[in-house]
Amino acid sequence: MDMIASSASGLSSLPPKTGIGLKPQHYDAILDPDHPSGRPFWVEVHPQNYFGVSDSIGAGPPHRWLSAISAILPVSFHSVGLSLGSAEGLNNGDLERLAALCERYNPAMVSDHLSFSGNAHDRFADLLPVPYTKESLNHFALQVDRVQRRLGRQMLIENPSCYLAYRDSQMSETEFLAELIHRTGCGLLLDINNIVVTTGNLGGAAEEYLSAIDPDWVGEIHLAGHATEQHDSGPLYIDDHGSAVSERVWQLYAHFIQRAGPKPTLIEWDTDVPDYATLMAEVAKADAVLMEASHAFA
Ligand SMILES: [Fe+2]
Fold first, then answer.
1. Is the alpha carbon torsion for 255, 261, 262, 266 positive or negative?
2. If 175 and its partner were Cys, which of 28, 58, 145, 171 is the partner (CB 3.0–4.6 Å)?
3. What is the distance in A from the centroid of ligand 1 to the CA of 266?
């Protein structure tokens, strides 16, 4: 396949600092230059939240807020709906809507997931894992290539949180990601909480997973909290983004950053969203880790 090539370095135009997912309840605080809790270095939005606001892109309060915030902070577009793993291929209308938004806002980064959400015509709310086979790798790489060509830029693909594995898989998730990155020139959005959830549910060691990650692949990191349910069969880890980042995730993050150097890092807190000060306290924790690494890598 003749795909977009990119250099291994310089994956990200986001600053190697900490950002937050943009929530309406924090708009005013972010725009306040004198807010006592300060400002994140960048924000992330789900572009699908802006698809339905107006057919002629640009109208409506969500766009007015995003325009104001994107004028002062870099914005990352974290897509949750391309469904790159759908057997029918991604929906062309969705790709065109994403392209139009990228043209308007010129985001610092564009990403989606190593997953599928139904088919090109019907959607599930979930990000479901794909089998790690040569056939699905060929298909997924074609979809990533299609997006990158249409947008004229590199995208990042996020490792999923998994609750099941396919018997037919022929390779590990990290082997699949390595080959995908090699073939398409895409980068990795490394979600460390997802690694904890996946290895907790399916077995395996998070440390081993992370040791297979080449830092040069990584254009962005996600940190989040998860829930744990106790069942007779053992604990079930649920990627709910509804609490502070767990100690386990902080430890793995610090260890990875010590090896990789500073990387753009997002605090993902999407349900039971806390007040701005609580969220910014998480930002400060991540920034302390990044600051320490920036001295070591200077
Ligand atoms: Fe994530």
1. negative
2. 171
3. 8
